[in-house]
Amino acid sequence: MVALASQYTLNSLYTLMPPKVCIPKASWNDQEVGSLIHYLHKHQAEVGDNSNFKSSMYKSAAEHISKHLTSRPAKTTAMVRNKWISHVSCMSPSS
User: Fold this and answer.
1) Are 80 and 65 in contact (CB under 8 A)?
2) H helices then E strands: how many in the chain?
3) Is the distance from CB of 84 to CB of 34 less than 8 angstroms?
4) CA spacing 20 to 30 A to 23: which of 46, 75, 78, 80?
């Protein structure tokens, strides 16, 4: 009886969970990375209180670097933000 109730609960959870969305992994070329870093350094005055850019800045950066795209997928706002955070963390003295 307990096993049946547990199975019912698990099945209910699976039906309530949204389907997993598979997002293609970003492939970056040197021109995209260089252009991104240059663009965000140029706009460093727009960094917010949390030492990070707003989503709109990452979006404009993605648009800016799109001319250097050599391999799909095109970079999204999230991909650009993750790349920047990765770059900054690699450059920090504590890493």
Assistant:
1) yes
2) 4, 0
3) no
4) 46
